[in-house]
Specification:
Blueprint (H helix, E strand, L loop, with lengths): L6 E5 L1 H13 L22 E5 L11 E6 L4 E6 L7 E4 L9 H19 L7 H19 L7 H14 L13 H13 L3 H15 L1 H16 L5 H14 L15 H11 L13 H11 L2
Parallel strand pairs: 1-2, 2-5
Antiparallel strand pairs: 3-4
Helix pairs in contact: 2-3, 2-4, 2-6, 3-4, 3-7, 5-6, 5-9, 6-8, 6-10, 7-8, 9-10
Length: 297
């Protein structure tokens, strides 16, 4: 009716992802949610451009979109190369009005995105592993210099690292996990916990529950990122400290959850087919239950 032939997303990851949905749904005769529940694939889209104002998700440079449906308490995702933005403008001056909460969320989101593609099994992918470690060290440095978060250079580095953490490069040809995200999505859908904050409560417990699978890579991360040698458990504590340094808790009980949290999340995971998560597809609902219970310490 309005003959719209181009969409410009101005905002952070939620705005960009919402616009990815719009450019796909605009040329689809059915319900656009079909793309998110997996019943249909995107076949054509309007062109999309991005002006980024909040660094975190890297959505300005990837083909993924995550959206929530409040009526059903769902948070789902879809992928399509057709929604990859035609251009993206990253100007760190747009970050000057962001709150501390938004900056902290962006840092933690970028950190966990990198971990999802790095904290898996050992590989010989020198570029991907080396670049991941550079990003992780850089994000740790930003956390450790949190008092400088209003400096333009600090913000420039966060914007660029968040972009590089999920533009596809560090994940090429290597195992990827994403279980923390799948569990975290359900927490956000039910309780409205900020995305990054849901990741911060899930990830440390996941690393402890799946410790034997993660041990070798934690040892590598410890030595190359934190300067910790021979103590994989200390690395998990160091990760928690990164989040806590920027004011983000790793305790799920610090949010408004309830006695039904674990069964509600497990039911949602099962309904969404998330019953074998992780790089080895061995994080079962039983494991997810242990992870959530441990996070509610």
């Amino acid at each position: 009716e309005k003959k719209i032939d181009f969409i410009l997303a101005v905002g952070g990851g939620s705005v960009v992802d919402g616009c990815k949905y719009l450019v796909a749904a605009a040329l689809y005769e059915g319900d656009g949610w079909d793309f998110l529940d997996g019943t249909k694939e995107v076949e054509k889209t309007l062109p999309l451009g991005v002006i980024l104002t909040l660094p975190a998700t890297g959505s300005e440079s990837n083909s993924a979109a995550v959206l929530s449906k409040k009526e059903t308490n769902e948070k789902r995702f879809f992928y399509s190369s057709l929604v990859f933005p035609k251009f993206a403008v990253l100007d760190p001056r747009t970050m000057s009005t962001l709150s501390d909460r938004q900056l902290a969320n962006g840092l933690v989101d970028a950190f966990v995105h990198t971990c999802e593609q790095y904290l898996t099994s050992s590989t010989n992918a020198v570029v991907q592993e080396g670049f991941s470690e550079v990003l992780l060290k850089g994000l740790v440095d930003l956390a450790n210099t949190w008092e400088n978060r209003r400096d333009e250079q600090w913000q420039e580095n966060l914007m660029w690292m968040a972009n590089q953490a999920l533009n596809g490069l560090i994940g090429v040809g290597v195992p990827q996990d994403w279980a923390t995200h799948m569990i975290g999505h359900e927490l956000t859908a039910f309780y409205g916990i900020d995305h990054a904050r849901s990741l911060a409560v899930v990830q440390p417990s996941l690393l402890r529950v799946m410790f034997e699978d993660k041990k070798d890579k934690l040892l590598q991360m410890g030595e190359n990122v934190f300067g910790i040698k021979g103590d994989a458990k200390a690395v998990i504590s160091a990760i928690e400290k990164v989040y806590e340094t920027v004011g983000i808790t790793t305790n799920l009980n610090d949010y408004e959850v309830d006695v039904n949290t674990v069964p509600k999340v497990l039911d949602a995971l099962e309904n969404h087919g998330m019953i074998k998560l992780g790089e080895n597809a061995n994080i079962t609902l039983e494991h997810s239950s242990k992870i959530l219970t441990m996070a509610m310490r």
